[in-house]
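R.M. (postdoc): so does anyone remember the format we settled on? I'll just put the structure tokens first.
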């Protein structure tokens, strides 16, 4: 009895372990999990905090100087017998406009990091969609490959028996055997592709689950796509906003470089005791930039950086417009291919197989002709699932570019 008890306990905990290693996900769940756990995305979130800290460190003036001095100290007597004592506080400040320009420039840098975060989010969601649909595709192909193996095994056994009974030649039996081996090899290849795609999705999710079970199916409906609407969405692409913010930041940096011609200000306050009489005073001094070549060099550098940022903004607009046109063309191609399978190819392949099966059963065609019809049907179904995959991926890519869910 004790033996069965421990066996039941072992099986129970084994099921718990397997349940912990299995992850059941819809596409939306996968997206949310990736945004929560993906280390690269989380690192970018922290980079925003870093940039905000940098904002305050750059905006604050240098530390003030606080000091005390004692003079006229009699030799061999206590410090309290000094003749003169001075306490002072000194603070160096840039010209006030510098703080305003630096504030604007650093605010643009913070907004840049936010734009990078949004771009990373779009890219991560697209990669999740691509990996998720790859798993769905491979599972569909695995079912077809398994069916192909079963049919090939069945007909190999039939051809083997026919050969042994002298009803068919050895060549037909060998071809059936080769076909079976090819089907088995393809099934193993699809299985390995499925494992690789699951590993890719786990990496994006930031998890280490042993197996991922998908719950969503590939979309088969083609929605209306407005090119004008897509172009309007492209205008808010984070990469475009990032380039624009960089141009804005460089414009403020140029204004800041002009301020290098302005003097720096130093303020001082002191309290002094001389011969036991208290005095106080203050001091204002200006640091004049006499060596103008240094300031001219900074201005030239800032102007060049602004021009570079403007050219990069123009280049980014061209790149995104080209990418959108190519993405729309690929989407329409995938949609047309999927539509062709749905309206013609699938029906025709199924009809070919149906007729071939009937003819084979009554002996009007041979085994090889029947196998050819069977492979035509399997390959057509594989092509259909692949067209669904490409359609869903291209749809996700348009969403990545425009931010519009199709």
């Amino acid at each position: 009895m004790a033996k069965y008890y421990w066996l039941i306990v072992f099986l129970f905990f084994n099921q718990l372990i397997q349940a912990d290693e299995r992850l059941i996900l819809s596409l939306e769940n996968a997206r949310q999990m990736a945004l929560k756990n993906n280390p690269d995305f989380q690192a970018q979130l922290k980079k925003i905090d870093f940039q905000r800290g940098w904002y305050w460190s750059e905006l604050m003036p240098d530390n003030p100087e606080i000091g005390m001095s004692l003079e006229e100290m009699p030799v061999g007597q206590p410090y309290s017998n000094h003749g003169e004592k001075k306490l002072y506080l000194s603070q160096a400040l840039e010209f006030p406009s510098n703080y305003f320009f630096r504030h604007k420039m650093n605010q643009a840098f913070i907004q840049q990091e936010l734009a990078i975060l949004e771009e990373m989010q779009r890219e991560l969601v697209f990669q999740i969609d691509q990996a998720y649909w790859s798993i769905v595709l491979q599972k569909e192909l695995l079912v077809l490959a398994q069916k192909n193996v079963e049919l090939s095994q069945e007909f190999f056994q039939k051809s083997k028996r026919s050969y042994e009974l002298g009803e068919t030649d050895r060549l037909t039996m060998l071809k059936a055997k080769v076909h079976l081996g090819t089907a088995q090899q393809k099934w193993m290849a699809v299985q390995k592709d499925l494992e690789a795609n699951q590993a890719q999705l786990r990496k994006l999710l930031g998890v280490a689950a042993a197996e991922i079970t998908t719950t969503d199916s590939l979309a088969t409906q083609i929605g209306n796509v407005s090119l004008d609407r897509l172009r309007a969405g492209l205008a808010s692409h984070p990469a475009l906003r990032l380039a624009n913010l960089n141009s804005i930041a460089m414009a403020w940096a140029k204004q800041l470089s002009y301020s290098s011609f302005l003097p720096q200000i130093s303020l001082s306050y002191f309290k002094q005791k001389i011969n036991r009489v208290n005095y106080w005073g203050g001091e204002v001094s200006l640091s004049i930039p006499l060596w103008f070549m240094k300031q001219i060099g900074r201005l030239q550098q800032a102007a060049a950086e602004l021009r570079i940022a403007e050219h990069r903004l123009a280049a980014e607009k061209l790149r995104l417009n080209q990418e959108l046109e190519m993405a729309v063309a690929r989407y329409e191609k995938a949609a047309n291919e999927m539509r062709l399978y749905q309206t013609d190819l699938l029906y025709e392949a199924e009809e070919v197989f149906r007729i071939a099966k009937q003819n084979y059963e009554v002996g009007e065609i041979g085994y090889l002709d029947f196998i050819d019809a069977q492979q035509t049907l399997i390959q057509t179904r594989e092509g259909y699932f692949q067209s669904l995959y490409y359609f869903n991926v291209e749809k996700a890519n348009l969403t990545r570019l425009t931010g519009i869910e199709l």
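R.M.: ...and that's the designed sequence above, right after the tokens. Also worth knowing: Residues 23-62+101-263+315-402 form a domain with the Outer membrane efflux proteins (OEP) fold (CATH 1.20.1600.10). The chain has one domain: 23-62+101-263+315-402.
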